[in-house]
Amino acid sequence: MNLLSEIQYIKGVGPSRAKLLRSLGINTVMDLLHFFPRRYLDLTPLNFEQGRDDSVGAFPCLVADYGYEVLTRSKTRIVKIPVTDGRRKGSAVFFNQPYMKDAFRPGDKLVLIGKIRKNYGEYEILNPEWQKFEETDYVDYTRICPVYPLTKGLTQKIMRKIIKSVLQETLEVDEVLPKSVLKEYRLMPKASALRNIHFPESWEELKKAQERFAFEELLLFQLAMMITRRHLMGEVRKNTYKDFDLKPFLKNLPFYLTEGQKRVVKEIISDLKSDRIMNRLIQGDVGSGKTVVASIALYLAVKNGYQGAFMVPTEILSIQHGATLKKFLNPHGIKVEILKGDMPKAVKEQILGDLEKGRIDVVVGTHALIQDNVKFSRLGMVVTDEQHRFGVRQREALVKKGYYPDVLVMSATPIPRTLALTIYSDLDISVIDTMPEGRQKVETYVVDESMRTRVYKFMESEIRKGNQAYVVCPAVEESDIGLSSVEEIGRELQDAFPHLRIGILHGKMKTEEKDRIMKDFCDKKIDVLVATTVVEVGVDVPSATLMVVENAERFGLAQLHQLRGRVGRSNLKSYCVLISGSKEMGVKARLNFMMRTHNGFEIAQKDLELRGPGEFLGVKQHGMPEFKFAGLVKDLKLLETTKALAGEIIKKDLLSTTEYRGIKRDIEEKFKIV
Ligand code: ADP
Ligand code: MG
Known about the structure:
Layout: H1 15-23, H2 29-33, E1 39-42, E2 56-63, E3 68-71, E4 77-84, E5 89-95, E6 109-119, E7 122-132, E8 144-147, H3 156-168, H4 179-184, H5 190-198, H6 203-232, H7 247-252, H8 259-273, E9 279-284, H9 290-303, E10 307-311, H10 315-329, E11 336-339, H11 345-357, E12 362-365, E13 379-385, H12 392-399, E14 406-410, H13 417-423, E15 428-432, E16 443-447, H14 452-464, E17 468-472, H15 486-496, E18 502-505, H16 511-522, E19 528-531, E20 544-549, H17 557-564, E21 575-579, H18 585-596, H19 600-611, H20 637-651, H21 661-671
Parallel strand pairs: 5-7, 9-14, 9-15, 10-12, 10-13, 11-12, 13-14, 16-21, 17-19, 17-20, 18-19, 20-21
Antiparallel strand pairs: 1-8, 2-4, 2-6, 3-4, 4-5, 6-7
Helix pairs in contact: 5-6, 6-20, 6-21, 8-9, 9-10
Residues 290-291, 385, 538 line the site of magnesium ion (MG).
């Protein structure tokens, strides 16, 4: 067996498991080794009293009596196995697995791995994983146990076994990082890092392994950014601008620009006047009015004879931004079209044709814009909204369609300056630091379950006033992990308020359906929109005045701030209610911070302190080169270290040396550049 061997030849993997593994993107032994755990269970042996509510623990125990079956009122078949940890009594409880009744006999020694709870004074460990062990081998199970992201048909047990068996072979793992780098930064070599990422010997070793991968990941990312920058930035301007007259545009606006907006517009104009092409990031809090600024850039581009493209992460946003741009630009004879992935063929062909012939001035769309069949006649201005969702590569793909176009990137989440400088090392940064006048703070409350009825009543009263509400849930459908789901809450609300028009929206729905629901919500045909975080980015519904977030503890502060930014978008008094049943001190403090603070940059800074830069690196988001590890890093130092090293590598042109061959190859593969 070697790294390139196909998985069906691994011990314990037959054709059907191989198929399941392939569906997870695992084709070779190498892929398998790079299929990293999502998290780890701490299986330090505990006695029942040491078990913490709702967290998985490992409980060595003795079977005290024969198992027996109970039938609950809801007809669930439950098997209970009486066990003891030596001091306390308890039971292992299995749901709908009647055969477990005879799986153990009194006197068996077990390790039960599962969640423990106290039920009428007796400990219960629910649906545990279990291992029997003999008197002699005390507890021979992995103390730090990996949990993999799996698919139906594969279990953690199987996956662990397969990976363990592969790790037992001697495999020649290529070290990517040069020896000198490993030494200077005291990094764990790749071979042992791979071992420790799956089956860590200790928490310290795990941390070192993660750090090593984070280092590698960030270094590659920084290098890719710098190489792209070399491609894009400092390029001599080819598109010349003569007409900077904004009076007609501003006269048509229903408001005056804020000071912050004016300053950023000035910065853009000075870029366009300079002899280098523009690569600028606009940062601004939610609602600070970034879209108008983008419209101005597009207006200038068209007035000077160029086309513009506006790329957004979701179709919903493409429709909204399309409408906004039409409103701002149509009166000046500028033709704006929206390009969608799934339009009727004829319509799409028409748009594509018009775009290529230069009959369309500005096009708005999702990734659909970077497809090969999209051609421009003279693309001169590329705007991407909510940038952290697009990879360097996607932005570049769009840029390549133009003739050295200027680039404006709008960030969704305000991020602390140091971090911005590091992640967006290829961009100049502008900040809109003022909010439009008349905006009120969104009044924010953190509540627990006991307030739910009151929250619903309040929601109803808001709707009676003619306003609208969002309810955001972390999950789409019901599952056993105890999270509120869109479907469940949607049903619950509809039952409780038959007269309200409830709509649901989540990422698993078809695009047309999503668009229709969102449009109905915008048109006030829906009162309450129950959704996942798909509503997080950018949508603008001015009469929405209430945002309820379920299981608020599941979201990062920056993300909560984004969600909160969906309301308070007009002069109507708006509210944000964060529902959380969590009793953890840290969680409470974190959520309470949202009540006090309304400044996106401060919130981002706090999030950075609490959760590390992962939140901003798009760990949970799509599009960005996938950071698997960088998010685990708790400080900015690693970002800075890797940035400095990347700078040195580029400056000394080390990528062309043999020592750096591995890195070069990986950058090429991962970022499709160099
Ligand atoms: P974001 O920065 O979050 O993308 P938007 O561009 O969506 O914000 O703007 C939020 C809302 O504020 C929009 O309805 C927009 O028309 C409005 N707006 C933007 N600039 C101003 C301004 N200077 N004065 C008043 N309203 C403004
Ligand atoms: Mg926006």
